[in-house]
Amino acid sequence: MAALSHSSKVQFLARASFFENFAPAERESIAARLNSRRFKDGETIFMRGDPGSTLMIVVEGRVRIGVNTAEGREMLLTIMEPGQIFGEMSLLDGQSRSADATAMGDTLVLTLERFDFTATLRQFPEAALRLCAMLSEKLRRSTDQVEGVTLHPVNVRLARLLLTIAAQASKQSSKPIAGIGNPRLKGNPTQRDLGQLIGASRQKVNFHLGQWQAEGIIARDGNAFAIQNWKALQAIANSDAE
């Protein structure tokens, strides 16, 4: 994973969900303040309770965000894909980390310190309004996710998750991507991971993935898979039938 040039950082920010609506001059200012960090598969990026003053953007690899229960088991909260950010609340309140972040596969992230981001906001006050809008959208998505777990069956939740991950992967590519994960790389979400993200058992996830594979909707290679029939998977995502 080579270091990113300034122009590459600017181009990447234009595709990153948090910064895509920022003006070009704002992205130029932010890119000049970004630093790169690399993590190996399974390496801790930060732990719950660590001091927090840095926003991070996933460039390559994935990052799992979770917390440990009283019994010592990990509760997976989300998996951050390339182009997504985490730790953004530290830019606003400077409080300690509320969860653990761990690299999934060899991972490259860009970091932005709170001081540097506030300098950009002072230089471009309109960026603060964009920040509020993006945080509101993220909160809305979290609310929709909680609603989905309580109101929709497992197959609907799983189909929506696969489509969301695939859409994020396509956004970061120069060409459309119909797959999720690369069988030659470490760090693909496991069935247990997918189950935790939608509030379902690994067995339920395995059942639906196997069924969709038999129907030609997806193709699997280990923990990586490709969506072969987008319309069929979208139809499942928009239905409420098991």
From TrEMBL:
Coiled-coil region(s): none
Residue ranges of domain HTH crp-type in the record: 152-231
Domain Cyclic nucleotide-binding: 18-138
GO cellular component: cytosol
Keyword Zinc-finger: no
Pfam families according to UniProt: cNMP_binding, HTH_Crp_2
Molecular function terms from GO: DNA binding; DNA-binding transcription factor activity
Domain of life: Bacteria
Organism, scientific name: Skermanella aerolata
Protein's UniProt name: Crp/Fnr family transcriptional regulator
Gene3D superfamilies recorded: Jelly Rolls (2.60.120.10), Winged helix-like DNA-binding domain superfamily/Winged helix DNA-binding domain (1.10.10.10)
Record keywords, A-Z: DNA-binding, Transcription, Transcription regulation
